Amino acid sequence: MISKSIVKFIKSLQIKKYRKQEQAFLVEGAKSVTEVIQSDYRIKKLLATEPFLQENQDILAHKSFEILPVNEKELSTLGTFKSNNAAMAITEMKPNIVLTVTGKEYGLVLDDVRDPGNLGTIIRIADWYGIKKIICSNTCADVYNPKTISASMGSFCRIEVFFTDLVDYLSKADCPVFGAFLEGKNVHQTQFSKRGLILMGNESKGISANLEPLVNHKISIPRFGEAESLNVGVATAVICDNLRREFPIN
Question: Are residues 112 and 76 in the same domain?
Answer without folding.
Answer: no
